[in-house]
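Deliverable D5.2: sample structural annotation.
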Amino acid sequence: MASERFISGYAVVFNDETTIAGLWREKISPGAFDKSLRDRPDVLGLWSHDSARVLGRTTSKTLELRPDRAGLYFALEPDEKSPDGATAWSAVERGDVSQCSFGFFVTRETWFDGGDNELPLRVIEEAGLIEISLVALPAYPSTSASVSDRSTKEHNNRNAQRRIAERKTWRDRAIANARMAMKARGITV
């Protein structure tokens, strides 16, 4: 990446459980994209999953992807002179868009029965990564995106990891409280 300013965060947070369309729970295993990043290194950075609105690309070195302990870290360098790049910079800098999504295809997964009180759980163990997107409404709310610069890169990376841990803790408490309230009312899901 050539620019001093970029948009960075976590496009994927490993082992973070979310509910998909109210039908099943889902989480991404650590290493799920390792093979894909090695074998198919051309990944797009898009605005809201729109392939006509490309903000960056790994092969042009305007998108960097790096899996770590927390998830799939990204650093994206949209062209500020293009309309879509200007939109991305403005929306992320203002905080109007602060999260990510990703387009993928599953190559290995395991399903677990949710039992009487929970939805089934899909664990994605290996997947092909096609694109990451800056989005306003992510399926995985623990993702992150913010404007960064070279001088604050490590600081922002640590802050992003801290925010992930805080969101997981808050979400786990909210889920536990909701389950206790439902159980007290005799409701089973």
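Annotation notes: The chain has one domain: 5-184. The beta strands are 5-13, 18-20, 24-28, 44-47, 50-57, 63-67, 71-76, 99-112, 121-135, 144-149.
The annotation will be released with the project's public dataset once the embargo ends.
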